[in-house]
Design a protein that fits this description.
- The chain is built from four helices and six strands.
- By secondary structure, it is α/β, with parallel strands linked by helices.
- It has two domains: 31 residues; 104 residues, Beta Barrel (OB fold (Dihydrolipoamide Acetyltransferase, E2P)).
- The protein has a five-stranded mixed β-barrel.
- A hairpin with a 4-residue loop joins strand 3 and strand 4.
- The longest helix has 28 residues.
- It is elongated.
- The relative contact order is 0.14.
Length: 138
């Protein structure tokens, strides 16, 4: 009976380890760092990672092709800017000057390739000090 108990214990431990590994791998795949434009461009560690990027859409450098499901625009940070190429459905609330959150990665040319675009309301989701600094930027 002790031999059977040992086998069952080993099978249970193996099963628990396998389920634990699958759960960890699934959760880890969903992890995305939330950074601003300055962090993305100044900290090289983020440049090889999929990130969630926040910033303000430039008032002047925006090209939206809703029928082609794409947008090209400059995203403003506090000190740096990055060109964004977005491929997907462009939200109705997206316009020059709005605050956005993007998901994607920086390519080898320095453009941010985004596959997720969300508009946000600065007064509701953003700290007032950061919003004021972005508003003051030309």
């Amino acid at each position: 009976m002790s031999h059977m108990k040992t086998k069952l214990t080993m099978i249970a431990a193996l099963l628990i380890a396998a389920v634990g590994y699958l759960a960890f791998a699934g959760v880890r795949k969903g992890w995305v760092y939330y950074v601003d434009v300055n962090q993305l461009l100044t900290e090289t560690w983020y440049q090889n990672q999929r990130v969630r990027l926040c910033g303000k859409v430039d008032e002047h450098d925006v090209a939206i092709r809703r029928g082609a499901f794409e947008a090209r625009f400059k995203l403003l940070g506090l000190d740096h800017d990055v060109m964004v190429m977005y491929h997907g459905v462009v939200p109705d609330r997206f316009k020059p000057g709005c605050e956005v959150v993007l998901e994607g990665r920086l390519d080898e040319t320095g453009a941010f390739q985004a596959d997720l675009l969300m508009t946000k309301c600065a007064s509701k989701y953003q700290a007032q000090e950061h919003a004021e600094r972005l508003e003051a930027r030309p």
